[in-house]
């Protein structure tokens, strides 16, 4: 068990607490826990890379922790009415599609390696930024002066583009 893996497991443990705070509309606590999760993601990655503590377990649980947090936050924010349901559906559908494609490739004994694409990195950044904004807006009265709709459309467009890029690569792999 490496230090980065322990930090990542801690981030996974934070997920239900962040969700509970959102459901109870305890926005300040939800935002702080989300910020701690984000900082811990950077710290565990830094330690893993710079102190040669990368591990196979870490390569699986780090993205699992990230996706668990983001998907849970988008669903929770939609449930409490902070964001529209369609945005949560787009975010969740992309991740469900990727997981289903990977599982199908394993079942068909054509394992596919999922490597982060530039569009997926932009997508993740946009999703994190918008989630942080939504939490901060409720916790501290942060206002984007009407840019919320632009931010939501940007998140949705990047999410769809990322899904399309992964689907295209998966189809090439499966039919090639």
Automatic annotation (TrEMBL):
GO biological process: glycerophospholipid biosynthetic process
Residues annotated as transmembrane: 6-23, 71-104, 125-144, 150-171
Gene3D superfamilies: 1.20.120.1760
Catalytic activity entry: a CDP-1,2-diacyl-sn-glycerol + sn-glycerol 3-phosphate = a 1,2-diacyl-sn-glycero-3-phospho-(1'-sn-glycero-3'-phosphate) + CMP + H(+)
Pathway(s) per entry: Phospholipid metabolism; phosphatidylglycerol biosynthesis; phosphatidylglycerol from CDP-diacylglycerol: step 1/2; Lipid metabolism
Keyword flag Lipid metabolism: yes
Topology versus the membrane: Multi-pass membrane protein
Pfam families per record: CDP-OH_P_transf
Molecular function, one GO term: CDP-diacylglycerol-glycerol-3-phosphate 3-phosphatidyltransferase activity
Compartment(s) of residence: Membrane
EC number in record: 2.7.8.5
Domain of life: Bacteria
GO cellular component: membrane
Keywords for the protein's UniProt record, in alphabetical order: Lipid biosynthesis, Lipid metabolism, Membrane, Phospholipid biosynthesis, Phospholipid metabolism, Transferase, Transmembrane, Transmembrane helix
Family affiliation: Belongs to the CDP-alcohol phosphatidyltransferase class-I family.
PANTHER family: CDP-DIACYLGLYCEROL--GLYCEROL-3-PHOSPHATE 3-PHOSPHATIDYLTRANSFERASE 1, CHLOROPLASTIC, CDP-DIACYLGLYCEROL--GLYCEROL-3-PHOSPHATE 3-PHOSPHATIDYLTRANSFERASE-RELATED
Protein name: CDP-diacylglycerol--glycerol-3-phosphate 3-phosphatidyltransferase
Organism listed in the record: Microvirga aerophila
